[in-house]
Amino acid sequence: MSTNSNVVSIHLEDNIGTITINYPPVNALGQVVRQGLKQSIEQLNSDSRCKVIVIQCVGRTFIAGADIREFGSTPLEPFLPDVVNDIEACPKPVIASLFGTTLGGGLEVALACHYRVALATGLVGLPEVNLGLIPGAGGTQRLMRIIGVKSALEMITSGKHCSVHSLESSGLFDAIFSTSSDEPVSELAALTHTFAKQLISCDQLEVNPVGQRIVDTNDINWDDVKSAIIKKARGRIAPLVAFDIIKSTHLLTVSEGMNVERDEFVKLLKSEQSAALRHAFAAEKMASKIVSAPQTTQAEPMDVQCIGVIGGGTMGVGIATAALSAGLSVVLIEQTEIAAKTAATNIEKIIQGNVKSGRMNVNVAESCLNRLTTSENKQNLSQCQLIIEAIFEDINVKKELFAELSEICDGNTLFASNTSYLNLNEIAQSVSHPERFVGMHFFSPAHIMKLLEVIRTDHSSDVAIATAMFVAKKLKKIAVLVNVCFGFAGNRMFSRHGREIQQILLEGASIEQIDSALTHWGMAMGPLSVQDLAGIDIGCKARASKPLPGHDPGYFRPSTLMFENNRLGRKTKLGFYRYDEAGKAHSDPEAEKLIRAESAKLGIKQKSFTDDEIVHRALFALISEGLQLYNEGIVQRLSDIDVIWMNGYGFPRYRGGPMFQAQQLGKETVISELLKLQTEYGELIWPDVNYDIPQ
Ligand code: 3H9
Asked: 282 C-alpha to center of ligand 1: Å?
């Protein structure tokens, strides 16, 4: 017998009723799926021919969670907690057949089943905290009854996707299947069917609902666990809520616990943090989409298997490592054989470090290193489909290099520059086919940082852009497409933000107060500590390539003063802070004295700031510059700016990015605040912006 709906279908064979979900892209639990699951369980339960039920999915994954697109609209019945309770209450054994990424509500469905089987390559997790939520369909109650309170707390409060393999002995799975089949999902279906048949042949048809198991809390020290969670949460509230629920409900029944869980889930769904984190998720998905003119078809990316990297410094090594880790071949070019060897050694060190920390297995590491060629001979680049330049920031040297590459490589090779601020339109002129030239601005360390700005020059073809975005995805980067301007989107805003911080310093706030106000608000690091870490000379040299703004006498004066006094940051053990032998930062009255003397020289009246005032000014500088970037068409959408700031500049994800903050404040408030700042400091610093943020 088989019953079909487009989304959830039933097939009955060998007394096994198989429920198949087919709801692309990730089989999320939209209303149609919940309804289909509920009806299918009821139908198979009342069919006397069915002895065992299997829940499986087709496509790329078992259920990857609740349907995020439904959050924010009125929930429609049946509700997920009721559906999972129906599954658990079914008197016939229900088996969940897992592959891909079984996440959130998807794992909650699986936890309510009486058996779970999985492909060894799969991942499972309760990532709700990443959306500012907690599991809302029994996850806080059932997981601890299977894998223990401590492991459940770790999984729920971290939101991590865990490999099936790492949970082999956790009790979560009744069978784990490895397969080398070209069609692993069909193979899994067959293996699950055999598993179900065995239950029938062994007459193992009694069910043992997870919800009736007792929670073992022997190994838990609640206070220690709570302190660790607070530390890791860094301002996010959901992990703490999950902890409190588990602590307060572990002795209750599942149904009592689920009532508490549901109340807290609903509260969090309405919280600002969840709105911000859901915005972050959607904004990142959106950033990878290229806006094209109506009625035009999206360009197909070129196939890239081998990447050339020119320059074996920190950036080149990071880019090469990211490409190797993504399964690509790399040809890395340095000026001398010795420099090329040093780069190879540095790449090997990073890869071996990954093996040591368990992030990479030995065979994968070996394969990565086998795909690396280092050389001082640029002719070796002719086999590459994409060449990324990562040499020092000198426009003439870069132009010469690309002219030379145009001779070596055929007309199909894509060229990219990793410059952080040089004019890519000018560099493009030195390439024989400027349409195949783009910017790919990685962030340091390039093998770790997620953000990648892909820069479209005036000449870049759609294929070149599509290929750069496609390679970015392969490298597991979050790519944002931007147009050419000084510093592109990220560094231009960083510079505007830095200017405001320096002005606040000159107006009387102390170095420590600025850093502490912003880190308490959630920034990963204080802006002045960042300067010390990056090296104060780097910014000073970059600014020296442009004339100083005559209308802004205080423009980066504190940094310039540090530079002139050889206080270059951590590398000279003196910068905005003083660093001891162990690298610990201390406040330094000398640095403050230099700044106060400069304020007096510039005639800047001193005042005291509250932490909120510091955050407000720093945030509004970002909002103002972000609006200008949008108005000028440098970014495709405002949310792209949020993606850049959250992934490249330590902006707290739970605050959704500067433009999300602007949206939360509302158009009127933002305009009136910007006008106030314009009145006080002039329109050259706070220019008029066309505020057209969709609400
Ligand atoms: C939850 O479950 C709450 C419950 O506890 C309680 C409820 C009462 N819904 O990332 P990709 C879309 S909270 C709808 O590019 P990948 C995504 O937008 C939820 N759509 O692919 C994209 O669409 P498009 C807990 C979703 O292979 C497409 O799928 N679950 C959802 O790199 C492909 O996505 C999560 O938080 C969704 N839940 O990664 C999982 N998920 O093509 C969040 C994805 O139109 N999702 N889409 O741009 C992920 O982590 C990744 O998307 C996943 C696939 C690992 C699944």
From this structure: 9
